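Teaching note: in complex prediction, the entire set of molecules is handled at once rather than each chain in isolation. The prompt given to students was simply: 'Predict the structure of this complex.' The entities are:
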Amino acid sequence: MDVTVIAEASGGGLHPVTAQLVGAASSIGGISTVLCAGGVGVTEAASIAGVTKVISVEGDCFGSFDGGAWAEALNSVARGDVIMAAATASGREIAATMAAMRGIPIVQDATALGIASGILVTRPIYSGKAIETSTVQWPCAITLRANAFDAAGGGGNADVSTVNQSADVAVAVKEAIAKASERLDVTEADIIISGGRGMGDPANFSHLYEVADMIGAAVGASRAAVDTWDEIPHSMQVGQTGKTVTPSLYIAVGISGAIQHLAGMRTSKYIVAINKDPDAPIFGVADYGIVATWEEALPALKDELGKL
Amino acid sequence: MGIAVLLKQVPDTTAKITVSGGRVDEAAVSKWSFSPYDEYALESALQIKEAGGGDLIAVTCGPARAAKMLTDAAAVGADALVHILVDDLGALDTTQVQAILAAAVKHIGADVVFCGKQAADTNAGSTGPGVAHLLDASCVTMVSEVAADGDSFTAIRASAGGNERVAVSSPCVFAFDKGTTELRRPNVRGIMMAKKKIIETMTPADLGVDTGSSSVSIDTHSPPPEKPPGQKFEGAESVATVVGKLRDEANVI
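The expected output is the structure of the full assembly:
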């Protein structure tokens, strides 16, 4: 099966999920061609093992984000049976638009793939409160959740070509309103430390940032914290109406573990919960639970991490 | 100006989901609600209508139970209600759902479409961009605010670089993230008026959409994998133990 992988860009280079997309495609017998929108990440993409071809799609439309225009330009270059993209906001939009353009179905947010009488797609539904497995006939489009698939290795040497292809831009960017935080986003991070209303005051999140800086973590928050304090933006919210994350390590501090929060983080590889209430539901999903106040536990955590 | 708001009824985010016989047990869902992002789309559409006039039509595609949600939309100000009756949305693939919704928007003659960026059941996010393509409309996703000036619109959306203001012209689709304004609650008069509001109920066939063969078939639903019970420690002095385990057992730091 021929798979067109839409490369995911991050900070001018290639997002690590791109190699995971290629790995997932190979695992079901797919031969990958990677499309790099606006020429971003071409060299890195060519070195991913298993990629046969990289096409740098270059055009004026890639100067700012208009999912419809990007999809149109990429779609005119895309070939093959399956379109694969990362289940990020932009990846979902581009893949959904390309699927509509091609008249093929799309299944979003896959966490496992297999092959039987079609492509077997496993994905969480109801934000992880249940798991759905379906059989999808190709041609189709599939988006994959980051960190759910093994990445293809390096050492590849794919052919690289350039196609000049733009599209009319209908969404014009007028001005930046608020700059994104310089800090790592929870969806990008391999380690996340999140605070809840148990932190008592938004100023106390500074302790979480200190820990985060020691271990290269992103800082997240529960919905209760986001709703209670204006200082904690919605972009930090982990849970059903926030972001869904699958880091290697998730540290929940002062988070009781409402069902909406658990839905957003329960697939993390390891979960540490710090809460003073021994009956908090968060302990039900924690690999390691510490019954203590954050005021006592976070200084100890900083000390211990400092010794590593 | 015709404003369509696409709504999906989903289990309330606080509801427990149980699986029985390989399928999510819908009968066991304690409460059904608007999908949360759809509610922000509805609120923004109501504000656009109040500021600039026009008809706001609430549209849903789903089983009979979804009619209640349309009545709830009328209670806060939707002018007309359209229900495309589909008993089992899970039996349709995205090409079919999008064809139904796009046909419904054309049927009511709306120029502008508001919807959630994704529904809280599948969390997919395919509908807004897909319907936009079928309507030959531009699409803005991750929207938190919309302002109208005639058939020109500005919207605030979240992007990788931060929030930005973008401009589009109708026809267009706005797929909402969590909005910035408070959601309105219905008052008694709104609720009474809504009860009298007639829902235009149609089938996909009425809209000329074939729901015959789906390319996606659901094999099974299952509960999330049970995690083995974790280890629990008392007191801050156990932090050293846990950090040791994270390093030696879990190998994550």
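Point out the following to students. The CA atoms of residues 154 and 160 of chain B lie 19 Å apart. The longest strand of chain B covers residues 138-149.
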